[in-house]
Amino acid sequence: MEFSRPFLNRLLLRRSAVFDKRLSEFKQGHRKIHAKDQDGNTLLHVAILENRLEYLEDLISYGLSPESENNWGMTPLDLAHFLGRQEFLPLLRAHREVAPITIYRNSDQMRHTISLKEFEQKLGIEYIEYLEFEHPDYLRWVATKSQKQLKKSTARKINRWTLALHKKAILTPRYDHIYIRYVSSEIGYGVFANRDLPALTYVGEYTGVVTRRQAKKTRFNDYVFGYMTGPKNCPFIIDAKRKSNFTRFINHSDEPNMNSRWVIVGGITRIILFTNEFIPKGEQLTYDYGKYYWRSRSAPALI
User: Fold this and answer.
1) Which of 53, 71, 96 is the last residue of a domain?
2) Tens digit of pLDDT for each residue in 82-140?
3) Non-local CB neighbours of 184 within 8 Å, separated by 6+ positions
4) How many structural domains comprise the chain?
5) Could you tell me the pTM of the whole model?
6) DSSP SS3 for 59
7) What are the tens digits of pLDDT across the range 12-62?
8) Residue numbers of the domain that contains 277
9) Do residues 292 and 211 share a domain?
10) Cα(4)–Cα(212) distance, integer angstroms
11) Residue limits of the SET domain (predicted)?
């Protein structure tokens, strides 16, 4: 699926008036503040979609909840995460500090914890705990497909089972179970078990920027992960080159000790990684990315 730039520009112009129109209707008494549109979006949802930060405090003071779900099960807080609206987060909830990252330095053969800021500076990436969609319409497409999946009995059962096992870990990620270590100039970094990990242990969500699948641009990108929203091909990929979390450092193996699975939570499909066998402390975590994984690798930075 391709979106042309003129199409996107027209779409943005058309939608930019939605918030102003709904706000005007509320002020004139024609619409209640808690009213929802056909997608179940409150005015708070729309403010985030249209990047109207200046109205956020007033809308919340009127009683609009950051936890109110639209028809896709997506809250305003979810939208702020998925659209990369970082400046909205402090107003939507108390800021949650991301836990420090554990690394292993070969120079002294010891583990060290470093701050998220230091980690980002040394590796030149932005650490994000959630998927970030390049455009609101990509998010809408994925959310619609995700809800269609949940209408299928088998998919719904698998999703419920997966959430029963891993929902808490998905929503409140921790990093004390892993550490990052430099392996070699050819391989770069790897992710290792910081403690014994039983089979079916949740490891993490593969995060990055959800963007269109473009073969020429992504062919030599080390950090592209196929974004599956169901059994059929999806026009999007997860690009973890500039924005992601520790999962971008998980290396390939033809005999991996982890599997991936799609799960629908927060209204969209996410890709999670979990162990498929017992992994002892100190062993590298691996995943099968496919036969072309090692064809091109960029030189890693040092931490």
Assistant:
1) 96
2) 999 999 998 987 556 677 889 888 889 899 998 888 889 888 899 999 999 999 999 99
3) none
4) 2
5) 0.83
6) helix
7) 444 557 898 888 888 888 888 899 998 899 999 999 999 999 999 999 999
8) 98-297
9) yes
10) 11
11) 176-290
